[in-house]
Design goal:
The chain has helices at about 15-25, 25-35, 45-50, 55-70, 70-85, 90-110, 115-140, 160-170, 185-195, 210-220, 235-240, 245, 255-265; strands at about 145-150, 175-180, 200, 230-235, 250. The chain is an alpha/beta fold. It folds into 2 domains: about 15-140, Methyltransferase, Methionine Synthase (B12-binding Domains), Chain A, domain 1, CATH 1.10.1240.10; about 145-265, 3-Layer(aba) Sandwich (Rossmann fold).
């Protein structure tokens, strides 16, 4: 059995980050199998999933193609679903995300090598980028698109979720920046210089909750003259949305559709979404 925790602290190239992310995501399928724990999903995501159902064989086949480097077969599988009427958003949320989880399981169960899972995750990111073109046709441009920065926590390597958010927001006409290998200083410098409407922070593990709290507090103090909203997401907040109050965030989003709805409400004065906290 491979050590499923061994890569979590590495900060090498993008491929290594992708692998470590998969190891983190190992807990997600475990939670989904538990009758006691149900992950919350926005109504828009549930509607999208119900409109087009993927079979486990689709997930298994795509994972097999990716780790084998069979790019053409992988692209054809995805294209067949799109031609059959599947929404690009459903491909991303209901096919790509489970494939990422399955790749993580294969690594942890020793049924796929480091090289195979590295290749698979890299190809999955490539597929995500290719589907972005179609995703743009699915979304109507936001009436008041703003600017948003998405970042993972410093030393965190859970990057696939942030990549998905980048795709959804860009498709909706937002100006999107992403930090996949940040330090606290990098985040602070970017926020102060760019003056974003929203800063979205992805937290993959409970151990980073206190660090997230310190980060948001520091950003608020340094950008006190800027009207910036802070939104958080990630597994800890999906399981316990009240943690958003603990870290001092304004909003918590459980998935890409909910993040878009919250962001639209922030930049559109005619809409309102109740934040988890209010700040002067």
């Amino acid at each position: 059995m491979q050590d499923c925790k061994g890569l979590g602290g590495k900060s090498g190239n993008v491929a290594e980050k992708a692998i470590s992310e998969l190891l983190h995501s190992k807990i997600v399928p475990d939670l989904l199998k538990s009758g006691r724990t149900k992950l919350k999903r926005s109504s828009r995501t549930m509607e999208t999933a119900h409109n087009y159902e993927f079979h486990q064989s689709d997930v298994a086949s795509l994972a097999k193609f990716l780790i084998a480097g069979d790019v053409n077969e992988a692209e054809e599988l995805v294209a067949s679903h799109l031609v059959s009427g599947c929404r690009p958003s459903a491909v991303i949320l209901s096919l790509f995300a489970p494939v990422a989880q399955l790749l993580g399981e294969k690594w942890c169960s020793d049924t796929a090598s480091f090289a195979e899972v590295t290749l698979g995750m890299m190809e999955l990111h490539t597929l995500l980028r290719s589907v972005e073109v179609e995703l743009g046709k699915e979304f109507s441009p936001s009436r008041n698109p703003g600017s948003i920065l998405f970042t993972v926590m410093p030393d965190d390597t859970h990057i696939f979720g942030v990549s998905v958010l980048q795709s959804f927001f860009a498709a909706s006409g937002w100006h999107v920046d992403v930090l996949l290998d940040p330090t606290k200083r990098k985040i602070s410098d970017r926020v102060l210089k760019a003056g974003y409407d929203i800063v979205g922070i992805s937290v993959s593990a409970n151990k980073d909750i206190s660090l997230c709290k310190d980060l948001i507090k520091s950003l608020r103090e340094k950008s006190a003259k800027q009207n910036i909203s802070y939104m958080v997401g990630g597994l800890p907040f999906i399981l316990d949305p009240t943690l958003s109050s603990t870290v001092g965030a304004d909003y918590v989003a459980t998935d890409a559709f909910e993040a878009l709805a919250i962001a639209a409400s922030i930049c559109d004065k005619s809409q309102s979404v109740e934040p988890s906290n209010h700040y002067a």
